[in-house]
Every structure is written in structure tokens, then in C-alpha cells.
Design brief:
Elements: H1 2-27, H2 42-47, H3 49-55, H4 64-68, H5 79-111
Organism: Corynebacterium gallinarum
Transmembrane segments: 87-110
Protein name: Or membrane protein
């Protein structure tokens, strides 16, 4: 009976927290109509996602050998390939940091080796 009461209290608490924060978040009116995604991407304000696609050369086909082959020039590739290549490296570095470096640092601080 005790575990049922604990589970019920935990469920009610989670429900109350989720409903309480949702009502606060939806109660606020949007007073600043200029704060949107188009302020970060100027092409979105002029023509939407099609303009971003034109800016990034989205219609240019690229094969894997063109982008990752032994003989490739980064400047000859379309902008979307360059951006995805950069995002891949950023994701790989973040993964290594999150899986290896930060847990090792946390362990060393926890054991007292680092202070």
C-alpha cells in the first residue's frame, strides 16, 4: 500500500507541475512581433525557406565521392554540403566530449584527484 501511495503522489506531482507550467507559458501574449526566426536568417524574411535553399545552393546535386573523396576542393562544393560537413564535425567533437572527456573529468573531481 505504501508503494502505491508513493507512486500516486509522484504521479499527481508530475501532473501538477506539467499543467502548472503549461498554463503560465500559454498565458503570456506575444508583444514583440519582430522577434522571430527571420531575424536570425535574413533570407527567411525576404522569401522564406526557398530563399534559404537558393542561398545554400540546395538544387546542386553532390555525390559522396565529390564531398568526401580523396581529391575534393571544399570551395567547389555547394554551401549546403559545406554546412553539413561542418555540423558533422561539430557533432563528432561534442559526442567525444560528452561521452569521454566530461565523464572522465567528473570522475577525477569526484575521486579527489582534481580539485
Amino acid at each position: 500500500m505504501r508503494s502505491f501511495r508513493t507512486a500516486a503522489v509522484a504521479g499527481i506531482t508530475a501532473l501538477a507541475l506539467s499543467m502548472g507550467t503549461a498554463s503560465i507559458a500559454t498565458a503570456q501574449e506575444d508583444t514583440n512581433s519582430n522577434a522571430n526566426l527571420s531575424s536570425a536568417f535574413p533570407a527567411l524574411s525576404s522569401g522564406g525557406f526557398a530563399a534559404v535553399g537558393d542561398e545554400w545552393d540546395a538544387g546542386t546535386p553532390v555525390t559522396g565521392e565529390d564531398a568526401l573523396g580523396e581529391e575534393h576542393n571544399r570551395d567547389d562544393l555547394p554551401a549546403w554540403v559545406q554546412n553539413m560537413y561542418d555540423l558533422t564535425w561539430i557533432g563528432a567533437i561534442a559526442s567525444v566530449l560528452g561521452v569521454i572527456v566530461f565523464p572522465a573529468y567528473n570522475y577525477l573531481v569526484y575521486t579527489g584527484v582534481l580539485k
